[in-house]
Design a protein that fits this description.
It contains 28 helices and 17 strands. By secondary structure, the chain is α/β, with parallel strands linked by helices. It has a five-stranded mixed sheet with strand order 3-2-1-4-5, sandwiched between helices. A four-stranded mixed sheet has the order 14-13-12-15, with helices on both faces. About 45% of the residues are buried.
Length: about 700
């Protein structure tokens, strides 16, 4: 490739956007079953120049793969093998730059196919839109093709077909170009340099990779500390803190009947190339049987064991974890139980996937990663507080690893929600011990405010509410939940999450009602006449159920959005409140306006206007979401704001969160109670300039609220 071509603007590239479907996800063993490609020239997709071929992989296609892409053995029985398809694909690509999503996998599979066919493989320049999206929108919660297309308002036609995914990737690539330009990534050379930097940074983060899971004689993951590690925490591998279970789980899970014989199940495990199967007992209950269980049965009972039903050896109940949980929680769960397999459930408790140690890249959990599981199993306030005290140490490690501040806030929020859930369980136990019995009606505990949004930092206090199925104010149900709310608040305060100064706690009647009364309260909110009458209504729209009947909590949240978005007076009232200045951030000469301690309240002059604008606009446009970034993206998708304005706000949001978090970590280490004020003198010149630029961009949020578009 000539030097001149490296200077070609991305919008001017001759590119081929490529996608393959294969027999599996392991590039060292996968074989191609379909290739799709489409030409992009001068920033335009040439829909008439596309490549779409089925390929005979010469091996059976696993049913699990067919479930994803829909291609079965019969579909490729008469298709040409790769060696016959390659010349046509090679000519189609020509000298074009390759573009794809997670291109490393596609290129690795193509290279292996060439090697198997005895074809010379020549490395090709390629751009990965997953990495480019991380560069263009680092605060985006996920960078999967589905996430990117949803964010960019791109409809995927023919998902998990090679040509369908290639076309969607091409559209996403073109949609990213303006955002990349805003990051000063305009040419092919700049894109490749930015990609190398991103990969190197990830590689540096992976430098902290800890020892892998090993098959210890006990069947448990080894967890002996490294003798060279100093301090309370090992160098943290940040991958488990940045990715969720749904990203690595296997789906759909293999299911068998309790009456199936061990021989039948063994054959299923071999054919599906998995090491476990879930046994469907009935009534939503599951057990699990693994290849090791069958081997042990044969060892103890002989070959006759193969004729016995798996119900004889299955383990029940099946241990499972939420598909939305961070991977470090799954690692900790496996460590605690000594398991190699977990079920994965969705928000409704339905088993939708399976997770194995192999899926987790054989990570070993440190004491830091075990935090979440320590909270889950803590039986006393002391144990809870010991687990909770590790959070600042983890946050410090993640900051040092240059993990995005919003991701760290999400981790903190996740643990605060888990802490509230566990405190609710302990509160219920206290109620029973005190002779008050079980809950009189179904109910849900909601976490409100920053924890609900996934944006808590290290100075979080309590913001919670209770919704119970039925009952009158002051009635027996309400009195029961008042006691529960008091226990809940007391436990959290003891652990280290202080009482809310504004009284937003389920122990108080204003935040503890029946479902019908909550609906009535919401409907009264939308009839308010003055901004000051709103009180804390805004944080209710950030609420998320963390314990009990989750459907109750979600239903009331949906009702709040439905009512709010349909009430023009309510929206005007919220808008008026959001337009009230949070304070002057700068002096007449352009410096930060600091208090007597040399600090700037970044929540007041920075975060609050951004968060409030996102919330108000999400209600106005019925863009139902909880986190600030997701709200802004949905608002932009509805045409209520320009992508450039949203990107600037998200960068500002990230920068301000990082500044507050770093200050909180420093303060905690110095024995100073953490808050939202930052000592700007401790920042270097570059940090101070970045923070000034971020706070200066806050005006975009208030303008968006006032004008509806910028």
């Amino acid at each position: 490739m000539t030097e001149t071509s490296y200077c070609t603007p991305l919008v001017g590239l001759d590119a081929v956007v490529l996608d393959i479907e294969a027999t599996g996800l392991d590039s060292t063993t996968a074989r191609i079953v379909q290739i799709g490609a489409i030409k992009v020239h001068g920033g335009v997709i040439d829909k008439y120049r596309c490549f779409n071929r089925l390929v005979n992989p010469d091996i059976p296609i696993p049913p699990s793969s067919t479930t994803i892409h829909g291609i079965a053995d019969a579909d490729v029985a008469t298709a040409a093998p790769f060696k016959d398809v390659w010349p046509e694909l090679r000519d189609f690509i020509g000298t074009s730059i390759l573009v794809g999503h997670a291109t490393a996998y596609d290129l690795a599979v193509l290279q292996r196919e060439c090697q198997l066919a005895g074809i010379e493989w020549r490395p090709r320049h390629a751009l990965d839109i997953r990495t480019l999206a991380q560069i263009a929108a680092p605060t985006l919660a996920g960078h999967s093709l589905d996430s990117l297309c949803a964010w960019l308002d791109i409809k995927i036609e023919g998902r998990h077909t090679a040509l369908g995914d290639a076309t969607a990737t091409a559209r996403a690539f073109l949609a990213l170009l303006p955002l990349l330009r805003a990051k000063n990534v305009r040419t092919l050379a700049e894109a490749e340099a930015a990609t190398r930097h991103a990969i190197e940074r990830d590689a540096q983060a992976a430098g902290g990779l800890m020892a892998t899971f090993e098959d210890a004689p006990t069947g448990k993951a080894t967890d002996e500390p490294d003798d060279k590690v100093q301090g309370p925490l090992m160098r943290t591998d940040t991958y488990p803190y940045r990715h969720c279970v749904y990203e690595v789980m296997g789906m759909p899970p293999v299911r068998v009947s309790p009456n199936d014989t061990m021989h039948e199940v063994s054959r299923t495990l071999i054919n599906r190339k998995v090491s476990s199967a879930f046994v469907e007992i009935g009534d939503g209950r599951h057990g699990i049987v693994t290849e090791r269980d069958i081997m042990r049965a044969i060892a103890s009972r002989g070959a006759d064991a193969l004729a016995r039903p798996v119900a004889d050896i299955m383990n029940t109940p099946l241990q499972s974890i939420s598909d939305q949980a961070f991977l470090y929680r799954a690692i900790a769960r496996m460590q605690r139980f000594g398991f190699r397999h977990l079920g994965v459930h969705n928000a409704n408790g339905e088993i939708i996937g399976a997770l194995t140690m192999r899926d987790l890249l054989r990570y070993r959990a440190s004491s830091a990663i075990a935090l979440g599981d320590e909270i889950d199993v803590a039986n006393t306030v002391g144990e809870l507080s010991q687990a909770w005290a590790k959070l600042p140490v983890i946050a410090k490690e993640l900051i040092a690893e240059d993990v995005r501040a919003f991701t760290i806030a999400n981790v903190i929020s996740s643990e605060l929600r888990v802490l509230t859930r566990r405190a609710s369980q302990l509160a219920e136990a206290r109620m029973k011990d005190a002779g008050h019995g079980a809950p009189p009606v179904p109910y849900a505990v909601l976490v409100l405010g920053s924890a609900g949004r996934g944006e808590s930092l290290l100075a979080a206090d309590q913001d919670n509410a209770i919704i119970f199925n039925s009952g009158e104010p002051g009635g027996p149900e309400d009195r029961w939940f008042e006691k529960l709310g008091r226990h809940l608040s007391d436990i959290l305060d003891e652990v280290g999450v202080p009482y809310c100064k504004g009284g937003v706690m389920a122990r108080n009647a204003a935040w503890r009602m029946s479902f019908a009364d909550w609906k009535g309260m919401i409907e009264s909110w939308v009839r308010r006449q003055r901004p000051k009458d709103l009180l804390n209504v805004d944080i209710f729209f950030d609420g998320i159920p963390v314990f009990g009947d989750v459907a109750l909590g979600e239903a009331i949240w949906e009702h709040a959005y439905a009512c709010g978005s349909q009430s023009t007076p309510f929206i005007k009232l919220l808008t008026e409140a959001a337009r009230i200045p949070g304070g002057q951030a700068f002096t007449l000469f352009g410096g930060f306006r600091r208090d007597e301690k040399g600090r700037v309240d970044l929540k007041k002059v920075g975060l609050f206007p951004i968060i409030t604008a996102a919330r108000v606009l999400s209600i106005k446009y019925d863009a139902r979401a909880r986190s600030t970034p997701e709200r802004f993206r949905k608002i932009a998708a509805k045409g209520a704001a320009s992508p450039d304005a949203i990107e600037r706000l998200l960068v500002a949001h990230e920068t301000i969160i990082r500044s507050i978090l770093e200050q909180q970590i420093t303060d905690i280490a110095d024995g100073v109670p953490p808050g939202n004020k930052v000592a700007t003198a401790r920042l270097d010149r570059a940090q101070r300039a970045a923070l000034k630029a971020a706070v200066a961009d806050v005006y975009i949020a208030t303008d968006l609220v006032g004008e509806g578009r910028i």
